[in-house]
Amino acid sequence: MIYFNCDYTEGAHPRILEQLCATNLTQSVGYGEDEFCGKARELIREACRTPEAGVHFLVGGTQANFTVIRTALRPHQGVISPETGHINVHETGAVEATGHKVLALPCGRTGKISASQVESLCQEHFRGGMPPEHTVQPKLVYISHPTENGALYTLAELEALYRVCREYGLYLFADGARMAYGLSSRDTDVSLPDLAHLCDAFTIGGTKCGALFGEAVVLPNPELNADFRYAIKQNGGMLAKGRLLGLQFLALFTGGLYTEICGKADEQAYRIADACREAGLPEYVPSPTNQQFFVFPDELLRQLEETYVFSFWEKVDETHTAVRICTSWATKEENVDALIADLRKLVGKP
Amino acid sequence: MIYFNCDYTEGAHPRILEQLCATNLTQSVGYGEDEFCGKARELIREACRTPEAGVHFLVGGTQANFTVIRTALRPHQGVISPETGHINVHETGAVEATGHKVLALPCGRTGKISASQVESLCQEHFRGGMPPEHTVQPKLVYISHPTENGALYTLAELEALYRVCREYGLYLFADGARMAYGLSSRDTDVSLPDLAHLCDAFTIGGTKCGALFGEAVVLPNPELNADFRYAIKQNGGMLAKGRLLGLQFLALFTGGLYTEICGKADEQAYRIADACREAGLPEYVPSPTNQQFFVFPDELLRQLEETYVFSFWEKVDETHTAVRICTSWATKEENVDALIADLRKLVGKP
Amino acid sequence: MIYFNCDYTEGAHPRILEQLCATNLTQSVGYGEDEFCGKARELIREACRTPEAGVHFLVGGTQANFTVIRTALRPHQGVISPETGHINVHETGAVEATGHKVLALPCGRTGKISASQVESLCQEHFRGGMPPEHTVQPKLVYISHPTENGALYTLAELEALYRVCREYGLYLFADGARMAYGLSSRDTDVSLPDLAHLCDAFTIGGTKCGALFGEAVVLPNPELNADFRYAIKQNGGMLAKGRLLGLQFLALFTGGLYTEICGKADEQAYRIADACREAGLPEYVPSPTNQQFFVFPDELLRQLEETYVFSFWEKVDETHTAVRICTSWATKEENVDALIADLRKLVGKP
Amino acid sequence: MIYFNCDYTEGAHPRILEQLCATNLTQSVGYGEDEFCGKARELIREACRTPEAGVHFLVGGTQANFTVIRTALRPHQGVISPETGHINVHETGAVEATGHKVLALPCGRTGKISASQVESLCQEHFRGGMPPEHTVQPKLVYISHPTENGALYTLAELEALYRVCREYGLYLFADGARMAYGLSSRDTDVSLPDLAHLCDAFTIGGTKCGALFGEAVVLPNPELNADFRYAIKQNGGMLAKGRLLGLQFLALFTGGLYTEICGKADEQAYRIADACREAGLPEYVPSPTNQQFFVFPDELLRQLEETYVFSFWEKVDETHTAVRICTSWATKEENVDALIADLRKLVGKP
């Protein structure tokens, strides 16, 4: 079987493994205070043009999300999130387990929310004429960039979110589990420095973007950075051999490897999307990144699934199904060629 | 001003105050282990025909709700609730503050959810074909009876909820903050023994039904009752002078006072509803209990609000507003007379 | 039986009951925003000489303690407490249930901790040379005044605690569940304005000092007061009929009732203590307040316990037991006379 | 500098790195449901002779500890731990952050607690004659094997703990962060099957015993295993590329690598200990594992620390300091030779 179901079926980019092997017996101090972590932090601060931002390396995405959110919120405060946001649907209630309500907003199939939605919610809470203390106080806006459905915010959309957050005293936090696929998209005007300028916190994903595992948490807002190492430790995110994380981000941020390898994945995804469109398959939702969502007739899907693994997304009607087709830094061009050829053959457009 | 905005603007029924005064200097043991609490427990068990059920007296409704829910759930489990459920919107995220997600279901204006909605959610979680551990496991169904919008479940609806809960191993918990107004409704087939038979836990509200304060938590399911006193204490619900609560419920459950006084409130509410209908005002949502919801032209509302206080519910369009009109055990018939007369006068139907 | 085991075996001071009865059918707004609460707040601010302090009325002591502590602490922070502090031993882990470690310090039988103990703990954490993030960060000092064992801090001791708290950025919080018995002690130099000046937060107990129930939380530090009403609501401490609490504190702080009635209790306690000393019984720990602790030969205790109820404290050796003898605002002088007479008779010193 | 300060200064045993490299581009399913994890689970079940036990791979020790403890406890329950237990002092209150009190027992320098200590605490809580609900209910006993101070429980001691746990309905949980050094000690009668027979849960440490990172959680008690994957996910411990953990434990449990490499570390530690004893240095606490604790004159220590890094443990008097000297699977024999030679030279016993 050939896997197109997700972007974490392989291990790490070879350059990362090389580094792990080369430094394996080097002795270093623990808990992320080694020189590899130090250098990786510097490279990330440079890439973000935020010389003062806190940069921390955590093991996984769920952990990074709830550690940041828990740090930002007081007990009576909650997090605004798109309904399909990862924290709202795929983290087993990790945010609630730290005591905070997720205030979910409708987001359609893109997985994006708008500044005006955030504004309405805040107006109702803070200026609705009712005593506000009977409801959860909104304090942080969580977005994913790219979203779980492959979409990207435009710079203008992010700036509008930034403004409404400033107006109501909210933090803005972007989950960048697939950040590299967004940064290298052919259809984005958002850069790392933009995110660093507009967000109080964001993550730069490693697990889905070439690393064995690991997420970099970037904290341009010093309020969130103070004492953040306590939060990492308490929440089980402080790796004893922290250098494992530092080494990986050091490799990814050396010579632009991070966006280079994920840009290639985006291109392979565009090829698949073009083939789907040619085959007359409707888009489930448009995506400019490595995840593509198309609606397949069930019979066609059954035939393709003899060879390829996709990710089930939604049954759209009795005889059609939306699936996610994912490429990654590790996707082989010949596998994409084969998928496209098989698709063409099955729909009779060779 | 005459208050029809809620059912807790006065103190307690006089018979309760008498009891408090009569026993004020009697010495008794603390923490709800006194003889007044003991007798009140017995009366409630008799009224529910559950000789074995746990009965506990807590100070308030939010506290009762989160203490029961927290006791019922393991950390990875959540509570199914109607979107307008009190725990979901008016308790400042108290359930989430104990670590649990509220899984909200659409409920229209009645505030009720159906067995089939619960079943769909459970099927998707437990039998959806996806590894379930990435999402919160449903474990308890929270309903209000009457709902926040005055509606009542029928016995058949409760039985259906009971069955789906049994099928998926869920607890059923009914918030009875306004229980007395439901039990004494002219339009219900649900009795206390029915609730005790179908629910794993439910509350019998005192605060809104004649007491100074206090909610009785009834736990027919012994799993929930074991160690429940630890939960009360830990969550700040164990009154040192517990007898204050026992005394009040003792008075309310002696001679049927509880439903007698709230049945009168229901009748006053029906009179107001009839007058509204006569005046041609549309029902916002039908209610067989002490809370009535009607849509007023804004100008009419403005005139009435010179004398009467209602509870704003929703702006339904540019020139109309839905309000809640509430009676209680303490509502004076002459105030209702006055309201009805003024309404008739203002709409020209004297 | 005559109860000397604790200070909450009776109801409320008659003047409080009168007020409850007189205002029972007055309609008022809910949740502590009524005029009774308003006036009570003003009286308390005047008594504390803190015109700006936040004053909130909560139902019970455990609730007041964990609500304040939870509000003050970030997730990685903990509370320093004497080992015998109420939060450490008699609140079923309520503070831990909100996510915070209690950092317990030895306190002997008095239940008091010193500034130098706090300083040592802080020095070790903040300046110990180890990365601090592996241990809980101390952020609040919890003391009881009077302590659970009847002792009082001197003004000098409180000032020293204040200074070390300022030095290390800690909050100082005094649990005043028995505050009135401390303020009216013949052996104290600490007044309410002193506490308001030195503490970031403290409580003024009602339950044990003449009220049916209720604790006033005073928050001289505006950081803690901001959004505190959210915290009250979320933690189940916001009474719908909040005026019940306001009314009681209004009565207690009118004409000095609060300290007047508890001063009498202290005097009765001193009489009992004098009789115990005369009878040759050793003090378990000296106390200048309404709780007295003496060591009794078991046989003598058995004889007294035919008529009187005391509180078991500790088995000190094979044949001797320390007990707590408690008076309260409701203690009758003739009961104290009887106890003293019986004690004298039994030890042969009539 | 040569590091003897801890056992996680290097990366992984070469055989693990080989496996990571060899399988790097193999596609596999995520979240620990791949075949590598499957095989590793089987090997561990065999080594423990518990064919039915749950085996889960988590990223780190703090995470493993609080995930197990949180799963085992209800909100009103706490965990009994030695005062020096890792969860009590070096995990930033992670257990409390999940809502549970740590009930710490004195343990001297060994870090061990006895069955009779546990029994006393349980007797006081459950049979002390006081209503138990005002204090935290003990429900789990946490021990470390080896302890943080290098000590090991004997089989008889573990059996006694097992019996008292059964008597009072407590779970027994052993933190095996350094398990391999204990299993391969020359001075132990405890095997993996013993632990699996006596404990409800225990961990088999990878991070300090040859792996890059990772702890295996073994759950012989099916109550704890049910739904444990939800707990892992919710607490941020479920690695997307779970095979990274499976692969490492597969390598460690193939051909006895786990105890083989750590047995060598123990031997190097014994050589160092012998040299310290020869040099007349007093043992701080005896240890049969890879951590050795000796008391050095400060001047001697200063000289050694020009070349070697130890871990500061405690200042024992004005001129002496206790330090920890640690070996690991990666310790080079020549470095031990050098340390011993330098020590002999400095104390004049070459």
What does this protein look like?
4 copies of one chain form a homotetramer. With about 350 residues, chain A is an alpha/beta fold. The first copy, chain A, has 2 domains: about 1-5 and about 260-345, Aspartate Aminotransferase, domain 1, CATH 3.90.1150; about 15-255, Aspartate Aminotransferase, domain 2. Chain A contains 15 helices and 13 strands. Chain A has helices at about 15-20, 35-50, 60-70, 85-90, 95, 115-125, 155-170, 180-185, 190-200, 220-225, 230-235, 245-250, 255-280, 300-305, 335-345, and strands spanning about 1-5, 55-60, 75-80, 100-105, 135-145, 170-175, 200-205, 215-220, 285, 290-295, 310, 310-315, 320-325. In chain A, the strands form 3 sheets. Chain A has a 7-stranded mixed beta sheet, sandwiched between helices. In chain A, strands 9-10-13-12 form a 4-stranded antiparallel beta sheet. A two-stranded parallel sheet of chain A has the order 1-11. In chain A, α2 (about 35-50) runs parallel beside α12, α6 (about 115-125) packs parallel to α7 and α13 (about 255-280) packs parallel to α15 (about 335-345). Chain A is globular, with a radius of gyration of 21 Å. Chains in contact: A-B, A-C, A-D, B-C, B-D, C-D.
